[in-house]
Automatic annotation (TrEMBL):
Database matches in InterPro entries: ADOMET_SYNTHASE_CS, S-AdoMet_synt_C, S-AdoMet_synt_central, S-AdoMet_synthetase, S-AdoMet_synthetase_sfam
Gene Ontology BP term (one): one-carbon metabolic process
PROSITE patterns according to UniProt: ADOMET_SYNTHASE_1, ADOMET_SYNTHASE_2
Reported cofactor(s): K(+); Mg(2+)
Function: Catalyzes the formation of S-adenosylmethionine from methionine and ATP.
The keyword ATP-binding appears for this protein: yes
Record GO terms (molecular function): ATP binding; metal ion binding; methionine adenosyltransferase activity
Identification of the protein by name: S-adenosylmethionine synthase
Species assigned in the record: Perkinsus olseni (Perkinsus atlanticus)
Enzyme Commission number, as recorded: 2.5.1.6
Pathway(s) where this gene product acts: Amino-acid biosynthesis; S-adenosyl-L-methionine biosynthesis; S-adenosyl-L-methionine from L-methionine: step 1/1
Reaction equations catalysed: L-methionine + ATP + H2O = S-adenosyl-L-methionine + phosphate + diphosphate
Length: 310
């Protein structure tokens, strides 16, 4: 057997600009590329993620669990999920889930199983264990394998890959996205590391009660150490007496968005990325990466309450 290695190193010009070919301290490392990155959090679920995305991701994971443990023997590896949730907006700007409007599951199956069996098993073993009863009613719509036969899956069923599913990796369409994918990039690429840091900041703000939901945006230029911009949008859900500008100042005081400092603070050189390549990079209470461990902002909360009482 002959192994041909066609992998090439990154341009030394990029390496020199970003990390001085390994000679720069964390505080001196520049961004590995330009771009805008976003982090989002909402208090509608325990993991501070949008319910619609959380349910869709958990349904996908449940498909894998039931396939691998043999609970549903006709399941095959390919599949997709999607959940539509009806919301109302609270008086403080928060999003309140009212009901699940539609559940869509398309999953590959063995040739011999009937559509009736597929429908029954998906309801019993996939949906019921995952979707809380209080969100389901007689008007909830279920599209379970709506295309009918789905025996051919994976690369045999479709030609090529059209993208890296960056919305599935993040917040299911909530918040915003700068367009950069995560998987396949090391942590000098701010597409990945700064998106993690922005989620860390957003989740910490919401967990502390400084806002009900939050979008944190940061942008970079290649080789430049300091972010070009930092922006916070609480959608009108900030603690009484606080503005989005106040929240942005809190983020600046408590989080270091220099790329090398993100690497250090979030332990991004630690082997951990493989398990993040499926079921999303955020809200992962099963893995609890560093960006999901909220930072203590109690001093900021106390200061905000002190200002409000004056």
């Amino acid at each position: 057997m002959e192994v041909i290695n066609k992998l090439e190193e990154q341009s030394p010009e990029i390496g020199q600009s970003v990390h001085g070919l390994g000679t720069k301290a964390p505080e001196e490392i520049g961004a590995g590329d330009q771009g805008h990155m976003f982090g989002y959090a909402s208090n509608e679920t325990p993991e501070l993620m949008p319910l619609s995305h959380s349910l869709a991701t958990k349904l996908g994971h449940q498909l894998t669990v039931c396939r691998k443990n043999g609970t549903v023997k006709w399941l095959r590896p390919d599949g997709k999920t999607q959940v539509t949730v009806e919301y109302k907006k609270g008086t403080s700007g928060e999003m309140i889930p009212v009901r699940v409007h539609t559940i869509l599951i398309s999953t590959q199956h063995s040739p011999e199983v009937s559509q009736e069996q597929i429908h029954a098993d998906l309801m019993e073993y996939i949906i019921k264990p995952i979707v809380p009863k209080q969100y389901l009613d007689e008007d909830t719509i279920y599209h379970l394998n709506p295309s009918k036969a789905f025996t051919i899956g994976g690369p045999h069923g479709d030609a090529g890959l059209t993208g890296r599913k960056i919305i599935i990796d993040t917040y299911g369409g909530w918040g915003a996205h700068g367009g950069g994918a995560f998987s396949g990039k090391d942590s000098t690429k701010v597409d990945r590391s700064a998106a993690y840091a922005a989620r860390w900041a957003a989740k910490s703000l919401v967990h502390a009660g400084l806002c009900q939901r939050c979008l944190v945006q940061v942008s970079y230029a290649i080789g430049v150490v300091q972010p070009l911009s930092l922006f916070v949008d609480s959608y009108g859900s900030a603690m009484p007496g606080l503005t989005d500008e106040d929240l942005c100042d809190i983020v600046k005081r408590n989080f270091d968005f220099r790329p090398g400092c993100i690497q250090r603070d979030l332990e991004l050189k630690k082997p951990q990325f493989q398990k993040l390549a499926a079921y999303g990079h955020f809200g992962r209470d099963d893995l609890m990466p560093a960006w999901e461990v909220v930072k203590d902002l109690e001093d900021e909360v106390a200061e905000a309450k002190k200002k409000l009482s004056k």
